[in-house]
Amino acid sequence: MTTTAPARRTGAARNRPAWDEPPTRIGQTAKGVLVGLVLLAVLFPLWVVVVTSVSPASAITEAGGLVIVPDGFSLGAYAELLSGGVVTRSVLVSTGVTIIGTLFSTVVTLLAAYGLSRPGSFAHRPLLFLVLLTFLFGPGLIPTYLLVNSLGLLDTYAALVLPGAVAAFNLVVLRSFFMNLPQEVIDSARIDGASEFGVLTRIVLPLSKGVTAVIALFYGVGYWNAFFNAFLYLNSNEKWPLQMVLRTYVLQGQSIPGASAVDSTLDHTGGPVASLAIKMAVIVLALVPVLVVYPFVQKHFTKGVIVGAIKG
Amino acid sequence: MPGADLLDRPTVGTRTPAAAGRRAGWRRRLRRDWVLLVMVAPAIGLLTVFHYVPLLGNVVAFQDYSPFVGMAYSPWVGFSNFVRIMEDPEFWSATVNTLVITAFQLVFYFPIPIGLALLVHSLLSPRLRMFVQSVVYLPHFFSWVLVITLFQQMLGGAGVLNQVLRANGAATFDIMTDPDLFIALVTAQGVWKDAGWGAIVFLAALATVDTSLYEAAAVDGAGRWRRMWHVTLPALIPVIVLLLILRLGEALTVGFEQFLLQRDAVGQEAAEVLDTYVYFTGVVNADFSYAAAAGLIKGVIGLLLVLAANKVAHMVGEQGVYSR
């Protein structure tokens, strides 16, 4: 690399292949601006929301709304939101549904993926066909709603988990990963007398940590972000997950019936905590788990797990 | 997009005892494999109850279903629900909206992930490239509620845009509630949320291009743009064709939550698509049979489109979502 590179090549230019002509100044500038705009388009809204959520009321009044340049710091909005009341409740509901749902979905998917990973096992083909067929035709909104209704699941947390508990896509991804593991290891464990369950937990799972983590995280993000099942199946707002609160209180700007803590903050706009800061804090609460989990999923994009899954 | 080809795909190490035992009697195989069946049971049970049972529940489309008497005792009415739908101008308006939005997004959404992939691919510094990728993939993991709320805070009546306009004495306008701009708004939201994610497939295709092709082209005197045209683009064409066909197969689906959440703000005329039409006629107006019929029409046509799309994909030599 050093032999062919002219002396002035520094920074990124060192990665430029020898046959590639150096970029024109205009082209380079245009590309820089474009990349900057793309990054700004994603990060600017997040920045504004986070900054406003930690701004004191005075800064919000001065800015005439959302705060772009930080001016003072206050966690009053978060203190107010998390001191009990509807938002605190919904955060707990969302957290509970996400944790339980993710565990449930991941375990069920893992078991089924392993159970279907051996060609020639009993009823392997019809069962796999049953799973794959779900890709082609969704059951439809109305019949699903009627079913959930007739099972007595309306207004229960189970309605937030059970209808979408198994994603056939995840099952198939996991299964094909299992099938590509070295079969000799699995066979020898079986010959040594390990049970199927033992093979799964002691051989297959340790070899599949990455893909299992990705699938669990996908389920987790799905449960955390889920809005429609709650919207459709829950009647009582004390069971609402955070996304429902975000929609009603922030997006639609309505107060939540029976939500005294939030109602009062809506009213005293001149108080120490601006209602706008509280709204932005609700957005941040919805955002944070995704941001926390994201680096762990992101790590695996490059490893081809997900690209392979998307390409099929 | 895995598919039924997995059924027949030979796996690594097919000659396992299990595979060799395919010809063994079913009694022996059952005795050997019952643990596997127990493992599969929860997933199959859930899919049966929450996928196949409601699939059969679509029979309410042929009934005058009443929740009080239940499916078993509701009277059968043949195709009269379907006839009513065909005569309903609101159904047709929802269909037209859906198709117009699909067409609009094919032009203004579809090319953006390709452009983004080319842009990211052209970044030479691996660290900058990783950073840009991390940032543009991120919104894919946000919920629609969150994405729309962020758009509202940026472009809505009390958003940053209007705040700046107001501070400068300019006239304000609320993009979030303007029915005429709605199609552009939902497309912009789709781009913001998923264009980065959509670029992954193209980046994967770009990574497979043999760099010696670029080198040879450069030696032959092809400049940057000609290399892009003659080397990069041909490498992307199969992926582009495949995704285009698949998108056409889903022409009747434009995203449900996104429209449901904004229907109040911009009005039914602009925001009613087939999925929201089914929801509002069925769940809100409690006309279950009618809405189930509308959903069934959408589902069947959607299925035919997917099958047709795959047929076309096979004809142009691509794999499609499943193989023959």
Q: Largest contact between protein chains?
A: A-B, 120 and 118 residues
Poorly predicted spans of chain B: 1-15
CATH top level of the largest domain in chain A is Mainly Alpha
Which term fits the overall shape of chain A? globular
Indicate the CATH architecture of the largest domain in chain B: Orthogonal Bundle
Q: Give helix and strand order of chain B, one letter per element, not per position.
A: HHHHHHHHHHHHHHH
Number of domains of chain A: 2
CATH arch. level architecture of the largest domain in chain A: Orthogonal Bundle
Q: Would you tell me the overall average pLDDT of chain A?
A: 85
CATH homologous superfamily grouping of the largest domain in chain B:
MetI-like
Our measurement of the CA-to-CA distance between the termini of chain A, rounded to an integer number of angstroms, reads: 37 Å
State the separation between the terminal residues of chain B, measured CA to CA.
Answer: 15 Å
Q: Determine the strand fraction of chain A and express it as a percent band.
A: under 5%
Please supply descriptive tags for the structure shown above:
heterodimer; A: 312 residues; mainly alpha; MetI-like fold; 65% helix; disordered N terminus; disordered C terminus; B: 324 residues; 2 domains; 15 helices; globular
